[in-house]
Amino acid sequence: MPLGASMSEYAPSIEIEPRVHLIRGLNKARFPEANALLIDDEILTLVDAGSDMGQVSRTLKSIGYGMEDIERLILTHFHLDHKHHSEEIHEISGCEVICHPLSDKGVETFQGMVECYGITNHPIFDTWKVMVKGWIPPIYSDYTVTGHYKDRQTISCGEVELIPIHLPGHTLDHTCFGINGFEIIFLVDIDLTGFGPWYGNEVSDIRAFQNSIEKVMELEPKMGISSHLLDPVTDNLPTRLRQFYDAFAKRETKILKNISVGYDTLEKLTRLPTIYPRIPDDVFLVFEEYMVQKHLEILVEDAIIVQDGIKYRIERK
Ligand SMILES: [Zn+2]
Ligand SMILES: [Zn+2]
Questions:
Q1: Which of 15, 35, 41, 56 could form a disulfide with 157 if both were Cys (CB 3.0 to 4.6 A apart)?
Q2: Residues with CB under 5 A from ligand 1 (ion)
């Protein structure tokens, strides 16, 4: 489906709990779309701003509100598919905009955001810049942040309580939200998609990501809401989390196999590609490269491979 198509073949939102609506992004909420949550409570609260504005408007209208009535916007992390419409919504409604303190740099300016992505010196940067402007027209502009939430410090919307759970790895600021406790968790980009975990930024970290998924598993949620799946996951959620977690090891195995058959430099492993099933456009190579590189660093640290100049080889003990 082309980007920018305005209607979808599914309901724009579903009520997942009393007062809690999941606003579904267009194109099945696939990047660069993302789901949002709308809390219809004393303080009308939106979590994330990456869903198409039409979807947000239709959901608001269905409960008797308009965009101007939004009082608070909570951002889960600085990524462009999540902050997308934040400034427009702030301008229309005058709502407060709160994020994790570590999100400031990536949210507030385009320059800060691309520094967090870590792509400013990469050859694809200029092409990428033009591409994201097409996806997300307001992305070069500054974004307002009016305040912060703190890890585990409950945000009350009236009846509904949101509990920020700082779960870094995907990015350093990535934050999930427990809804009235931890049985229902907005998992954001611990997104349970078939692609698996994404850690293609400078500020991404594999071990932190693994820790974060472990923490979610320990909380034993009954429902996990992904930013990029249309429906919340309830069936086999522990298994789905485990599969998502296991992707790290599978990718590691693949990297080792590729090294053993001669794809023994970062560039060769990236070009294959190793993690993305295919590279739809060369601009994505930078993210593949970051992800592969983070695995290589860990494999070297664990003395499973040895680096010799630009080449890697399997350590034989
Ligand atoms: Zn993200
Ligand atoms: Zn996302």
A1: 41
A2: 79, 189
